[in-house]
Please model this.
Amino acid sequence: MNTGNAPAPRQNSEKGASIFIVAAAMVVLLGLAGLGIDLVALYLGRSEAQRAADAAALAGATVFVSSSCTTSATDCTTNSTVTNQAKSQAIAAGALNLVGGTAPDIPTGTITFTQGDGKTPTHDPLITVVVNATLPTYFIKILGVNTVSISTSATAEAYNAAGSTSGPTICATCLKPFMVPNCDPSHLSPANPNCGGNGGYFLQPPNYTIANPGPYSSGGVIGEEWALHSAGPPSQWFSIAFDSDQSGSAFKANIKSCNSDAIVCGTTLQTLDGNKVGPASQGIQTLIHASGDGLGQGQDVITTTGGTVPFPITAGSSNPLVTAGVISTGAQITQSDSLVTVPVYDAPNGSINPGKNTVTVVGYMQMFIEFDASKKGFSCAGQTSGNKDDFICAVVVNVSSCGSATGGSCGSGGNTGAGGGGSGTGGTVTAGGAGFIPVRLVHP
Model:
């Protein structure tokens, strides 16, 4: 009988099992990390695509402003010249905003136009841009997903407050120190009783709608010639003393450069006494890059013959882009230093003449300055310059009013800026200069 110790029964070894568990967990964790990285990349790509769509829509909407179509209720969405140019600018701006390191796809056929959408004034034109992009994946390729397609859209509007009863009112900056009375001598209907039988409205109360929209050749106001700085009542030349500064040097500086005062609808402005021919002429000729009085002095040129908006603008020989060798003389351009914005006013006492007091802003007018006439014998808008006067010949390009809203504080965000509340329900939006009226995103 064997009395030795029997061997212990063999047990299953569990050594190394934890390695398999850790390995499996690491695979899961790495998979989740990879999925997280891909999701973050896709989220970033979508944000970049939205930014591209926003930029494209805003760029396209600026064409509504430069083409004058916001003063003609139906021209923006039916004028193929305007819509084709808007599409081109939208695509070009969108392409500058890379998505995942590459230019996004903006199909021309997906860029659409509407005239109001029930949330904005019915006359305001809108452009909607769709941006598509294909983004590569990194870790989820192991699941057979090599790329992911994303699509975003944005809608932008050119906002003209004319006729609005509830929308935001406009704060304007970079106004030139000239003003236009709300008295149109070329359109006697509807008649403005303040004009003494010699003119109708540019902007008709109570909501200050555009009285005569459309091209001048078709009975509208766009393309109408106007003499800024023409003689008014004694010592008054329809000029503004910004910050109540009556000096000629300040007047010239405000003509040549951008005045930073933000003028909200309903603001009262101090009139400038005296004609100040020298400062006016020097300031304008510097602004428009003209070497002297009249046409053909190197300044840009606008062509209104034919009456079809947008009126073509061509570069003069003294245009900074021409002198820098970027473009040639006669090249068609969409922006010009000759494009300026001035306020339209009603006098607070009911008189259409400013007198030596203040005037109240009821809207804005964008004009193209054709030439300065500080010498005798130049004609503009049915007037002829004399020995002691000076006027600045301009063409009406766009008109906007405050609607029925006034007051509020101005924002500082440029064309898309928002400010404090006015008497309307929508607060304020900021525009001005050649931009004239605000361009804003309405459907981000």
